[in-house]
Amino acid sequence: MKTLIIYETKSGFTEECARTIKNQIPDSVMMDIHSDEFDINDFETILIGAPIYEGEIEHYTSRYFSIHKLKLMKKRLGIFCAGMNTEEFNYAVQESMPPDIFYEAKIVHCGGRIKYKNLSLKEKFIVRRRLGIKHDEEINNSEKMEQFINWAKNE
Ligand SMILES: Cc1cc2nc3c(=O)[nH]c(=O)nc-3n(C[C@H](O)[C@H](O)[C@H](O)COP(=O)(O)O)c2cc1C
Question: At 19, which helix (H) or strand (E)?
Fold first, then answer.
């Protein structure tokens, strides 16, 4: 049965995670969550990726969880989220989705990346204040991602 990988991204990190997953799952399909070219009914396993900004999962994806909750609950559901605040990760994820999804889905922190020089002044201010970050930084969670991918492959 095929696997659908849908992702939302602002600066590209979550998309890279989605591609890493896609490259390791034969017969998987990868789509931007904003695309209307997929139907989750066609897939058995659904993997959804999104970043955390200002304490919450990006809003299009969190709305998607609420709107499609009943359909998603019938699937094998995996969620991979990017963020630079490891301590706040569980709280931010839990706050951004219906409890049924939070407790049923396999959820992984896929890491995160800040390219400080690419941020706007406002974003730099938020990142300094919220995350204490003033330079380029990256969190690599490749071991957790490998476990997540093995779970998605049903191994
Ligand atoms: C303005 C701004 C706010 C952010 N807020 C948070 C946050 O509240 N918690 C967190 O864990 N990471 C936060 N991040 C880090 C992002 O989640 C991280 O850069 C992630 O890799 C972005 O993914 P993307 O490239 O797919 O958009 C923030 C980043 C920016 C630029």
Answer: helix 13-24
The amino acid present at 50, given as its one-letter code, is: A
Residues near ligand 1 (Cβ within 6 A):
9-14, 51-55, 82-85, 88, 112-114, 119, 123, 126-127, 130-131
pLDDT of 24-68, one tens digit each? Answer: 999 999 999 999 899 999 999 999 999 999 999 999 999 999 999
Q: Say which CATH number the domain at 66 has.
A: 3.40.50.360
Ligand 1 atom nearest residue 14's Cα: 26
Please give the tally of structural domains in the chain.
Answer: 1
Q: What is the pTM of this model?
A: 0.97
Provide the domain limits for residue 123: 3-152
Q: Report the alpha-carbon distance of residue 21 to residue 97 in Å, rounded.
A: 22
